[in-house]
Write a structure and sequence with these properties.
5 helices; alpha+beta; binds zinc ion; 5-stranded antiparallel sheet; single chain; elongated; 2 domains; 153 residues
Length: 153
């Protein structure tokens, strides 16, 4: 009985070592720090559905550098602007701002998006709040639709 117990304990230890090794291997391939871009939960009550037309109008009116410069220090580099990326720890100006396409992209953590995405990820606003804030800033009147007729896909 004792012998069996010892054998089993050894086997168990071996198995555990395998698991520990496997877990270490997993930890090694995981990024050490996840980007902070955690989206706030979307409560049903504050969800609004905007017409595609007004969303498109807003997209065209948003000046990405105007939005980002409220939170980041932008530096001109050639025709584009760059900034220190707020989504990962680093001091390099790895965030590229493409004003023409209205998109930013970080070459290090690959954070990517437009003005609305930035307000959600950096200013931690829910989607409707981000839309309304930007609509007000850029003088766009948003058309709100009935949520039941227009479910989000
Ligand atoms: Zn980044």
């Amino acid at each position: 009985m004792n012998e069996n117990y010892e054998v089993n304990a050894k086997k168990l230890e071996e198995a555990l070592m395998h698991i520990v090794k496997a877990m270490n291997a997993i930890v090694e391939v995981l990024p050490t720090k996840q980007p902070e871009a955690v989206r706030p939960r979307r409560g049903k009550s504050d969800w609004k559905f905007f017409s595609k037309k007004s969303l498109e109008e807003l997209r065209l009116k948003i000046s990405l550098s105007a939005v980002l410069s409220q939170y980041l220090k932008l530096t001109k580099r050639g025709k584009k602007c760059v900034a220190v990326c707020p989504f990962h720890d680093g001091k390099d100006k790895s965030l590229n701002i493409d004003e023409k396409n209205g998109e930013y992209h970080c070459s290090v953590c690959r954070a990517h998006g437009g003005g609305v995405q930035f307000m959600m990820d950096h200013a931690k606003m829910p989607f409707p709040g981000a839309i309304e804030t930007l609509a007000q800033q850029f003088g766009v009147t948003m058309e709100v639709l009935n949520s039941e007729e227009h479910p989000v896909h």
